[in-house]
Design brief:
Rossmann fold; six-stranded mixed β-sheet; 13 helices; about 35% helix; binds zinc ion
Length: about 400
């Protein structure tokens, strides 16, 4: 059996096919490209039993990943994160079976490690020596660290307001780190310029086809962890939307292999911050693409994306699974973040907290029905965002009495 069943790349907008043996960015029509696999051949060779005894990381699904040679894998042990029952929080919001897919325990502290692991590995396989990317922080941190491990040079541009720790992750990896007095779109334009002038590999969200392949493994893992019985609802904090597109792609590939049933697909929910909700607006207006969201602002920095290149794919995934898109304001998501820590001992990131807050609202409106199995993605560790928490505490002198709790 080949290590990977990758067959080619294709454009989801104009259907043009491309060979996967060369470096590729966007389709000539401007759309992102997606990877396709020879699922008919794989179906004959591969069963859920084939996964037994494989390492507990995302490379256990290598047949559905784009690497042809295992020697090119660049890994820090990412993947197979816990799918935890949230009993106390669930009963607080009236969802008996509430589960958290916890990406807070992955290398670099956010699920961006998945996209970076697969994206950097494939870039290495294709001979990339130097890459560039704009970021709101977490993606840049992950790509800088994985690129360091691969021996690839990375130029990263992020807003000055991006979480400080992500800046430091880039700096310590030796990346060419630059800050911009602006938003991720401004960083994107600067990267595009450098790509044009210096021929760097453009690792911007969806401008290369393999980051999404790494992120899709969240969908594969959720299915495997539930023993191939899919949940009713999956909530995902949506910025560029790569994770949501990836989860939907994973489900379709598993259905083509016959491992899950198409009519049992979960309803996919795109969760955004009220201060940056272009996908929610488009969904409410039944549009197939979003519009640029001016003056975007939210404490959930990873989902501050005013216009996503793959917006049409996010909306397609939401429509086709009869899901929805919903916005949560910062006060709500920060309150939920604290509640999750108090009730469950989990310090989730603000983006993850938004997904839980959305679950609460959707249960209140009965969009989530009683008895349904609900999975919320916590996309990163709360430890990366110390500024979202106030920690006022009395300072005592040695020998003072501790006041009662
Ligand atoms: C990037 C990011 C998101 C959004 O991911 P997309 O796949 O781009 O929508 C959510 N949460 C965190 C913590 C992130 O870093
Ligand atoms: Zn095209």
């Amino acid at each position: 059996m080949p290590f990977s069943y990758l067959s080619h790349l294709y454009c989801p907008k104009c259907q043009k096919p491309y060979a996967s043996t060369e470096i590729r960015q966007l389709c000539v029509c401007g759309s992102p490209l997606l990877a396709d696999y020879d699922l008919q051949a794989l179906k004959k060779e591969w069963t859920p039993g084939s996964l037994k005894g494989r390492s507990p990381d995302l490379w256990r699904y290598h047949e559905l990943l784009p690497l042809s040679d295992p020697g090119n894998i660049v890994t820090l042990g990412e993947g197979m994160t816990p799918l935890l029952p949230m009993k106390r929080l669930g009963s607080d919001m009236g969802i008996e079976r509430l589960l958290m897919k916890d990406e807070g325990v992955i290398p670099t502290g956010s699920f961006k490690a998945r996209g970076a692991a697969v994206g950097v590995s494939k870039a290495k396989e294709l001979g990339v020596k130097e890459l560039a990317m704009p970021t709101n922080g977490n993606a840049g941190a992950a790509w800088a660290l994985y690129a360091a491990r691969a021996g690839i040079r990375a130029s990263i541009v992020m807003p000055v307001e991006a979480p400080l720790i992500t800046r430091k992750e880039c700096a310590i990896s030796g990346a060419n780190l630059n800050l911009v007095n602006g938003l991720i779109g401004d960083a994107g334009k600067m990267v595009a310029q450098a790509v044009k002038e210096r021929g760097l590999f453009d690792a911007s969200t969806l401008k290369e086809p393999y980051r999404i392949e790494g992120k899709k493994t969240m969908g594969l893992e959720i299915a495997e962890q539930l023993n191939w019985r899919l949940p009713d609802v999956i909530l995902y904090p949506t910025g560029g939307g790569v994770g949501l597109i990836g989860i939907y792609k994973a489900l379709k590939e598993l259905a083509a292999l016959g491992w899950v049933q198409r009519d049992k697909f979960p309803r996919l929910v795109a969760v955004q911050a009220a201060g940056c909700a272009p996908i929610v607006k488009a969904w409410e207006e039944r549009k197939s693409e979003s519009e640029f969201w001016a003056d975007s602002r939210t404490a959930a920095f990873g989902i501050n994306v005013p216009k996503a290149l793959g917006d049409f794919l996010v909306l397609e995934a939401v429509y086709e699974t009869e899901g929805c898109a919903i916005a949560v304001d910062d006060a709500e998501l920060l309150e939920e973040q604290a509640r999750i820590a108090r009730l469950e001992g989990a310090f989730v990131c603000p983006e993850g907290a938004a997904a839980f807050s959305a679950a609460r609202k959707l249960r209140e409106s009965s969009w989530i029905k009683s008895g349904e199995t609900v999975v919320a993605l916590n996309t990163g560790s709360g430890i990366k965002y110390p500024d979202t928490v106030r920690a006022d505490a009395p300072v005592l002198n040695p020998g003072d009495r501790i006041p009662p709790a």
